[in-house]
Structures are given as structure tokens and as C-alpha cells.
Amino acid sequence: MTGVGIVGGFVAGFFLWGFAEYLLHRFAMHHLRGKGMMSREHLEHHVRASWTWSSVFLLSWSGMLLVGFALWAPLGWALVDTWFGLSVAIGWTAGYFFYEYQHAMAHLQAPKGRYGTWLRHHHFHHHFGHPMANHGVSWPLWDHVFGTFEDPGLVRVPRRLAMTWLVDDDGEILPEYADRYALVGRAATDERLAALDRARAFASVAPTE
Ligand SMILES: [Zn+2]
Ligand SMILES: [Zn+2]
Q: 190 alpha carbon to ligand 1 midpoint, in Å?
């Protein structure tokens, strides 16, 4: 096995994850409307539009490692050889953890650079504009292929769900983000609004203002 094959395996695995990211997010998370743990956990993420650590992550991390090393590695091994199989599994794992990291950071930290700026704009349109569009988080390729890509335009963020990095201490939008985001509605929530946020998240509809 040459170095080219190892790099090829890694790229194939990384690419494979990007495809899985799209399919899982669109079908296993949104189309299932809360049936099954993966869908329920993801739609809970839409209810609050925030990222917090949960032990459930350990389960998905182990699951994806298992898919990489118990499914893709033997398959790559059978198709080419051991090193190729291992490279595919490592590429898949790298793609998955890249996605997990970028997604968490999108919610928690201000963008740095063009990629982070793009990713947040693309992903927050998914949250606040149209949850059945822009399913790719780290990469928009499959949204373009399957016709679910939407140009976010100005993303209207309900104040009660605003990312902490988007606003100043008074809860007003920081000027550097005003060309991509606008704050709408009021900051306070109540029981009725919380119930509505939940119902709309589970129906894959954007939250009301
Ligand atoms: Zn998100
Ligand atoms: Zn989603």
C-alpha cells in the first residue's frame, strides 16, 4: 500500500462522513419527528438552539467510532487492503469529530475567519429560517446535490434564542454581525412560548418571532 492509497482512504472516509452527516441530519433526525433517540436529541437541540454538554454525546461518539472501525474498516480492507480500510475509518472519524466540534463552536463561540462565518450563517438559517433546508453543517455539497440548499440572506434570530456571541451585554446585536443577522421578538420567554418552541422544533418548523 502506498502513501497515495492511505491518503485516498482518509479522503474517502472524510467524504463518506460528509454524506452521512447530510443523510442522518435530514432523514434520521428531522424526518423522524422525534421518533428514536437520535431524532429526539436533535430536535431538543432545536428547541433551545443552544449547545450544552450531555452524556448522550458519549453514546453517539462511540457509535460513530464503531461504524468507522467495525463497518468501514473491514469493508475497505476487503475492497483494497488493511491500510486502506484503516485509513477510511480514520478519515470517517476525523470527519465526524470535525463536524461535532464545528457545530458546538458555531453555537458557543464567535466566528473566526471565512469558514466559521459561512458555517454559522448557513447553520443558523437551518435553525431560525428553515429547518428543512441546509442539512449539511460542515459542508454544503449535498444540499446542492439534493436541492435543499438555501441562501440564508438575513437570518432573523428570536431574541430569546440568540447565541451569546451575537449580542452585547444589553442583548443588542453586535455591529459586526448586523449584515447577516437581525434580532426579532422579545428576550423573555413564558410557558406558552416555550411550549410553542417545542412543538415547532419537533415539527421541523422555524421558531416564531
Ligand atoms: Zn445547531
Ligand atoms: Zn437540524
A: 22
